[in-house]
Write a structure and sequence with these properties.
The chain is α/β, with parallel strands linked by helices. The protein contains 15 helices and 14 strands. The structure holds 6-O-phosphono-beta-D-glucopyranose (BG6).
Length: 489
Amino acid sequence: MSNSRLGFGDDFLWGGAVSAPQIEGGFNEDGRGWSPMDMIEYEPDKEKQQIDLLDFYTTERMNAGKELDNGKFYPKRIGIDFYHRYQEDIALFAEMGFKCFRTSISWSRIFPNGDEETPNEEGLQFYDKVIDELKKYDIEPLITICHGEIPLGLMEKYRGFYDREVVDHFMRYAKVLFERYGDRVKHWITFNEQNGATTVTPLAAGVLKDKVEDMQQAGYQAAHHMFVANSLAIKQCRETIPDAKIGCMIAGFTVYPATCNPNDVFQSLVDTQMENYFYGDVMMRGYYPSYIKRYMAQNGIHIEIQDGDKEILSAYTSDFLALSYYCSSVTSANKEEIELTSGNLMSGGKNPYLKTSEWGWQIDPVGLRYVLNLLYDRYQKPLFIVENGLGYDDKLDSNNEIHDQYRIDYMKQHLLEVNNAINDGVEVIGYTSWGPIDIISMGTNEMTKRYGFIYVDQDNHGRGTKNRIKKDSFYWYKKVIKTNGEDLD
Ligand code: BG6
């Protein structure tokens, strides 16, 4: 293949990404406390639909989940049993040649209620074992400190990140992680998809709906507290692990105008500011951009910014910007006129030029090149694609095999566009595909929304042997990594 297509650097971090609540299981083992993710029950009547995760974020539903044996099934309590099978799973990642593996730490394994003074040693030991296992195969751990789950105790006693005290609890937790794992973990992400704080506040910022009167106000205040937490974590990380890199993460949204009507084009700029730039601007540039100050003023949103916060935000900006990317959408000046389809975190306008996945997410590889260029032009700092992949209801054939050419096609097209972006001049340091092994879906709570190169024999009700089976894409990705992206066929 010609050199003009060879953009992946020698140190490119190929690998896969998961989150603790979607894989671990072991929800009540070794002193772990409750996570809100434990309380989201499987809803069989919502097959292949995004469930309204936010419906679960009430005190009543959280309390209902605490009653064990209530006859309901909570998939994230069992995950795919990575808690007991991590060695087997990591061996499979190593066989594919992973250079990097992204997972999160379950905060309530380390601080069961979130506000204890000292951490739970058994919880810390689990991640010691996982990290050591990764290092055994020279796989670089990429650790997300908080992936959509703060301890339920902090949501009940406080109002999640809406309350400033939670920043202190987060910092105690982050410091423990840096001190414990800093000798082995050199890549960190503070919060998963932080731009959810203002759009899906209960989920991203841990706010129970009955605890606040105005969720929009709570969302912006929580976002501010998370920005401060992000910067303080950067400061702490640099002091504790000077040779580490610490990034922030957003869900990468590519938003096109529905037409070339200037009003639609302008609306796509506004949506991009609100959904992508706001978070990147604060965490990568270190200050609140003018458009968001205007938006807050016009919408009566008032946030409390303490003395010293602005200085912290500007002094400690992220080393890299991590992003997830799955799909794109269109927007219009007349939003009520566009047809909607579902997507990551929220629905968006339908694009007649694109096909969708079985779950309605619009497949758009060029949109990845587009958003990479957009973000790199703006921040001029390395980008790390830490989630991308195709959710598909894979079926075993009569030989117990899965021929997932559709997944290979999806990933190949996306990687070609990553390569194009690199050739455009964008600095991309790595690519960790989402769910290299089938896991519980975040947005649908199903097992059948499978992203993996490795099939897990488990159904939506948690039944099955949990055996791991390599799909065709397993061998394909192995070859991609081996050739450093040169051979994508
Ligand atoms: C991202 C999340 O929003 O999308 C992941 O960070 C999630 O946790 C992924 O799993 C894919 O979404 P879903 O709903 O298909 O699992």
